[in-house]
Amino acid sequence: xxxxxxxxxxxxxxxxxxxxxxxxxxxxxxxxxxxxxxxxxxxxxxxxxxxxxxxxxxxxxxxxxxxxxxxxxxxxxxxxxxxxxxxxxxxxxxxxxxxxxxxxxxxxxxxxxxxxxxxxxxxxxxxxxxxxxxxxxxxxxxxxxxxxxxxxxxxxxxxxxxxxxxxxxxxxxxxxxxxxxxxxxxxxxxxxxxxxxxxxxxxxxxxxxxxxxxxxxxxxxxxxxxxxxxxxxxxxxxxxxxxxxxxxxxxxxxxxxxxxxxxxxxxxxxxxxxxxxxxxxxxx
Length: 284
Fold this sequence. Notes:
20 strands; about 5% helix; eight-stranded antiparallel β-sheet; about 280 residues
């Protein structure tokens, strides 16, 4: 057994409650209870590997731009709900932290409210577990249906990975897959290139993606490993769209790429009393 994790809940930006979690080996993460959103991850002995916009709005009703937003019960605009669903704009409950060997973890919980049922008329229970240690960050989303009727949903861990220069970054591991190219109007294509490069806007959903995808930069390689999620989204807005987004600075597109564990092609069908779980592990 390792030492007990060090954690502290303080007021973060916008006076929103923020948890700082420190593993026995010094790995660190910061998670806002608003959205249960990881905004910083520093591997042991390393530097922050996530991107967080300096123009992000930390206020109720607005999403935090960066880190790992949780999308549920809708990914993107593929449905009738607000963009990326409901839970990234809700205040989650901090359920505690613990240490097992060299890993520290924290759990956050959320359930439906009167306001959420006005938009999506289903009872639900959600739990997000964040685990850190060494060169590893794992986020696990679990959803339970406590109601009497089944419901369906799509979901994602919308991860913003920091890079020093997007034009020198590439995504590998997706060759041969079918994808929806949202930057080209939603047409379906087959990935024939050995890697995804960034020379403009990229917004692609790769269907039935393998467990591991790689972010390769001149400085490092990051493994993005998913389980329970079926698909992978790769997104960078490019210069023109970035300049039009109020919670990004004009050149922020150069400093991040989103590689997202998602289930969107085939929504999850969750029967009463059943539980679904999906996870994403980043290995620096």
